[in-house]
Amino acid sequence: MATLRGGDLSRLRQLNSLTAIGALRGAGPLTLSALAKRTGLSRPSMKEVVDELMQLGWVEETPPAQGTIGRPARRYRFRASSGYLVGLDIGGHNIRAALANLNGEILAETRQPVRPDTPVEERLAAIERTVASCLALGGKTIADVWIVAAGTIGVITPEGRIHYCAAIPAWTGLDLAGRLREMFPCDVVVENDSRLAARAEAQRGTVRDASDVVFLHVGRRMGAALIIGGNVHRGFGAAAGEIAMLPQAQWFDAPEHLQNCSIIPPDTSPADAAGYTLAAARAGDPVALAAVERYVDDLAVGTSAMVLLLDPQVVVLGGGFSRSADVLLPPLRERLRRSCIRLPDVRASTLGDECVVTGAIDYAVAHLDHQLFTPDVPLPTSR
Amino acid sequence: MATLRGGDLSRLRQLNSLTAIGALRGAGPLTLSALAKRTGLSRPSMKEVVDELMQLGWVEETPPAQGTIGRPARRYRFRASSGYLVGLDIGGHNIRAALANLNGEILAETRQPVRPDTPVEERLAAIERTVASCLALGGKTIADVWIVAAGTIGVITPEGRIHYCAAIPAWTGLDLAGRLREMFPCDVVVENDSRLAARAEAQRGTVRDASDVVFLHVGRRMGAALIIGGNVHRGFGAAAGEIAMLPQAQWFDAPEHLQNCSIIPPDTSPADAAGYTLAAARAGDPVALAAVERYVDDLAVGTSAMVLLLDPQVVVLGGGFSRSADVLLPPLRERLRRSCIRLPDVRASTLGDECVVTGAIDYAVAHLDHQLFTPDVPLPTSR
DNA sequence: GTTAATAATGATGCACTCCTTCGTAAGTCA
DNA sequence: TGACTTACGAAGGAGTGCATCATTATTAAC
C-alpha cells in the first residue's frame, strides 16, 4: 500500500500501457483482442494504447497468423530489438559474457578462461575482450547496448565496489561498477553472482512457481541467495546471503570434504577433484560416500538455519555441484527433514554453468523494467 | 511489476479514494487543499473523492480549525469509529486484550493471568472473558468489532492452527482460529507473537524508518521475526523466524544462563530470576556479568546468522529482557562487530509488555487495509 | 465600524480515457 | 458464390480529472 498511488488520467494510460507491454513481453505476438482480454481493457482502448506504443517504438506489428477463421487479426509484439543487454559473469576461473535482446533472449555467448591470480588490469582487459567478441558474435556494437549487468564473486557494496572477495584476492577494494562504466558507455549494474544465479533460477529455472526460495550456490565456493516475496533479497548493504561467513554454519570449508577425499588420484586437477569424489559416490564407493555424508552434514547446517529462519517454499541446489544433485539431494533432504519444522521442496537446478550470466541478463531486464515502470527515469531512445 | 495493473476509470477513482483514505489515516484531520497537495490531485477532484467517501461512511467532517487567516477550511478525517478492532496476546502466563478503532488507536486494554498448564478449554474461556471485559471497558459490544487478531507463542499454520507450542503444552494441535471464530462473529486472524511484536516495532516503535529489520524477541522464551522490504516475513508455511529450533544456534537454552545464575536468591520466583541477574550485572556483580556474557555469546550466534543472511539495516532487541538493553546491547554489538560483514544498527525496543497486543492491533489494521485495497473483498458495512 | 487581504468554496467548461455499439472488411468453409 | 466468422474502424456516451473564476467567510488593519 506504500507504493499504491492514484493520479491523473495520463497515469491510468501509463499503467495500461505498461500492462500491455508486460503482456506482450510475457507471451509472443498477440492480437488486439487477445491483448484486450489479458489486460481487461476493451478492444478500442487497447487499440489506442497499442497505437501509442507503436509510435513510441516499443511495439511492432508482425504478419498475421495464417489459417484462422474470420478476418485475420493484426498481431503485435514487444520490440525486443530496440536495444540490447549484456550480461557478465566475472568468476575466478572464467569470464563469460552474453548478449540478449530486451526480452532477455540470449543471442550470443562468449567465454574466456582466466586465473584467480590474474592481475586486476589484465582481468579488466579480458572482460573488455570477452564483451567485444560477444558483441561481434551477435553482430552488434556497444552503441546498441542499453545496460551491462555484471555478476562477480564476493561481497559487493550497493554502489558496486568489491567489499571483500576471497576467491579473487586482487579484486577486494576495486570499484568494479566505476571501472565498467569507464569501459562501457551505458548503464552498468553490478551484483553478487549467487544472487544472479538465483534470479535466473526464478526466471527460467526450476522455481518459476515459487516466491520464497533458498538458493544454494554450491561448488568449489559456497554461496547462498534468498528470494523473498518473489524478489531476490539484496540486503541493506547488498551483503545478504553471506552465511558462509558464520563459523558455526561450517560452510566455508565444507567443499574440502569432497576436494581432499583420499580416493582422488594425485594427478587430478583441483577443478575435477570434487567431481571425482561425487562420481565415485554415485558408483557406490564407501570412502566417497562417507565424504559426501560429511559434506552434506556441513551443508545441511547452514541450510537448516536458512530454512528455519525463512520457511521457504523451495530449496534449490545450484552451482557446479548441482550436476551431482542425484547424489546430494537425498541425504540433504534427510537432514532437513530431521531439523526443520516443515520440509520444503528440495530441487536441483536445471541451469548449467551459464546460470550466472543468464541471471545477469535477467537482472538487466529487471533493471530495464524498473526504468520502464518508474516514471521520470529517462529511457534510452527506442527509435 | 507483477501486481501493477491498469484498468478502468473507476479503478482510477478507486486508487485515488484509497490514496485519500491513506493520507487521512496517516495524518489527523486534513483540509481539502492539504489532501489535494498530499495526493497530488487537484482540489475539485479531491472534493469529489471526499464527497464519495463521506457518502460511503469512510470519512467524516470535523469542525474547522480556529484562528486561521482567510475563510476557514472544512476539515475531514478518516472515520475511525466506523468499526473496532480487537487484539489478543495469548501468552503462557498472561492473556492480554486491546480494543482499538480503525486507526489502530487503542481505547481499552485488559489483562488476565493464566498459567502455562491451564487446560485448553479454561484458557479459551479466559480469552473470552478478557475480551468481554475489554469491550465493556471501551463501551462497545462484539457486534461493533470487525476483526479479531490474535497472537500466540509457537509455530502456527497459515490457517491458524497451533502446529507446535513448547510454552503451552496443551496448545499444540489446537485449531485456534477455528475456536476463536466460533467465539467471535467476525473476521479472525492468528499470527505468531514475535511477528506481531516486530510489526508493532515497525509501526510505532524504534524501526519506523527501516525496511529490513531483524527483531529479537528475547525473554524467558527466545523468538525472532524478520521484516523484509517493509513487510513482516511470514514464510510459506507461516513458520519463519524459528531459528531457535536449530541446535547450532544455541538459542533454545540461552535464557538458562540468566535464570539459573548462582547469585539468585533461592526464593526468587522464576518470573523474576533473569531480572535479578541482569540487575546484578548492571550493578557490576562479576558472577552476574559472566552469566550475561555467556547469554550474549549464545544470543549472538543466532543473531549473527540472521544478520549475515539478511544484512538488515537494524537489529532490534525486544521482549521482556529489552528492559535491560543497557546491559545487553554493548556486548551484543561487540560480538556482531566481530562476526558480521557490516554491523547493523542495534537498538532496544521502546515498547513494553504490550508489544504483542499492540502488534495484534496493527496486524488487524493491516488486514483491514488489505481488504480496503483489494477489490472484491466485501467490507463490513461502514454505515 | 469599515475596508482590505486572505484563503476556501462552488460552478462552469474543457480535455482525456475508456466503454458500448454498430456497420464494414477480410478471410474460411460448404 | 454465399454463409459464416472474426477483426476493424468510427461514432456517441459516460466517467474522471483539471483549470479558471466569481463568491463567500474570516482575520487584520485602519
From TrEMBL, chains A, B:
The keyword Cytoplasm appears for this protein: no
Family annotation (Pfam families): MarR_2, ROK
Gene Ontology MF term list: DNA-binding transcription factor activity; kinase activity
Domain HTH marR-type intervals: 18-64
Domain of life: Bacteria
Family in the record: Belongs to the ROK (NagC/XylR) family.
Stated name of the protein: Putative NBD/HSP70 family sugar kinase
Organism the protein comes from: Nonomuraea endophytica
